[in-house]
Amino acid sequence: MAKNKLIMINSQTNCSSEYVIKKTGDVVLCSTRPPPEGGIGKSLLLTFPIASENPGRSITIKDAGGYAHINKITIQRAASDFLDGGSTHIIIDKPAEYKTFVSDGDKTWHQIG
C-alpha cells in the first residue's frame, strides 16, 4: 500500500482528538488506547472530506487499538454531506471494529463494509 494511502492516528503520529481526512488517507488506523499503550488516550472525531470532490473514493476507518469500547471513534460529515442513509455522524464503539465508505460523488458517503 502506498504510504500516502495509510494514515495512522496514535501517540507517535497524531495525538489530537480531531482529524480531518484530506486527499490522502484511504485507510485510517486509529488507536484510542492510553498513550503508554501507543494510543491518543481519548475519544477521536474524524471528519470526512466533501463527497462531491471525491467521487468513487473509498475510505476505511479501523479501531486498530481495539479500544473503541472505552474511547469511541466518531466519524462525521463535512459541510452538508450525509453518511449512509442520511446520518450526520456514525460511531465506532466496538473493539477492532471497522467501517468502509464510498463517495457517490454528490452528497453522500455510503457505508459498504
Protein described:
Helices cover 0% and strands 36% of the residues. The protein has strands spanning 6-9, 18-20, 27-30, 44-47, 58-63, 73-76, 82-83, 89-92, 98-103, 108-111. The strands form 2 sheets. A 6-stranded mixed sheet has the order 1-3-5-9-10-7, with no helix packed on it. The chain is globular, with a radius of gyration of 13 Å.
Number of strands: 10
What level of helicity do the residues show? under 10%
Q: Which structural category do the helix and sheet elements fall into?
A: mainly beta
Strand order of the largest sheet: 1-3-5-9-10-7
SSE pattern: EEEEEEEEEE
Radius of gyration: 13 Å
State which percent range the strand residues make up.
35-45%
Largest sheet at a glance?
6 strands, mixed
Task: Name the shape in a single word.
Answer: globular
Number of helices: 0
Cα-to-Cα separation, first versus last residue: 19 Å
pLDDT average, as an integer?
Answer: 93
Low-confidence stretches: none
Short description:
The chain contains no helices and ten strands. It is an all-beta fold. The two termini are 19 Å apart.
List the helices and strands and how they pair.
Layout: E1 6-9, E2 18-20, E3 27-30, E4 44-47, E5 58-63, E6 73-76, E7 82-83, E8 89-92, E9 98-103, E10 108-111
Summary tags:
113 residues; mainly beta; 10 strands; 0% helix
